[in-house]
Amino acid sequence: MPDISKSTVVGAAPAGAKDRHSTAQAVEAMFTSIAPRYDLLNHLLSLSVDRFWWRAAARTFQPVVANSDATILDLCCGTGDMAFALRRQAGKVSPRILGADFSHAMLQRAAAKSAAAKTKQNGTPGWIEADALNLPFPAEHFDLVTSAFGFRNLADYDAGLREIVRVLRPDGECGILDFGEPRGAIGAFYRIYFKQILPRIGTLISGVRGPYAYLPASVERFPAPDEMIQRMKAAGFAEASWTPYTFGIAGLYRGKK
Hints:
10 helices; 47% helix
C-alpha cells in the first residue's frame, strides 16, 4: 500500500470507495451492519474508557449546556452516547439537544435509548437523519456542535468543518472527540491492540469483518492534531485547540467561531 501523506488526505477512504458519494455509501453501510452490537463493542473494546471520554467532553461545554436557551447539535451521533452525556451534564436545565446521523439503523437505537431514559431525565435529545456535509439547518442556528468518533468518517474533513462553522452562531463552539495515535511505549502497545487484537474481537462479536478492519486504518489516516487545528482555523474557527485524553488515545478538538 502506498504511503499517503496526511496533509493530502481529503477524508475517509473505505475499501472500494472512489469519490465522496461512494465513500458516504460505504460508511453508511458499515455502520448499519454493526448497529446491533455497536454499543456493546464500544464499551468492550475500550474497556469502558469511552464513557469517561464522553463525560469529559460534555463537562468541557458546561457553560453552554447549563443554558436552558441553548441549541445543541451532536453530529454523526450514532446511537446517541455523546448527546446523552450532554443531556446528563445539563442536569435540571433543558437545552435543546438534537442528534444527527445518516444511518437510520443507528438512529433507531438512539431513539430506543431515548424512550427508555424519559422517566429518568428532564427531557431527552431529539434525532434527525441528515448528511453532515449538507445539514438541513439554516446558518447560525446552533450554540454548540459536537461530534464523537464520527467526524473521522466524513468523506471531506474540510467541507465538514465549514458546514459546522456555517450552522454555528457567532461565538458558538465546536467539540470534535476522536481517536489519536499515542507515542512511546503506550503507543507501541496501543498499535498492537488497535491493529491486531481489536479487529479480531470486533469481527468475532459483530459477525462483520469490514468495519473493524477499517477502524484502525481510518485513525491512522486522520490528520494529526497540529494539522487538524490548522484545518479548523482555515475553515473559520477563530480559536482551535486539542486536549488529549488517556495518553492521547483519544482527544477533544475544540473550536470557537
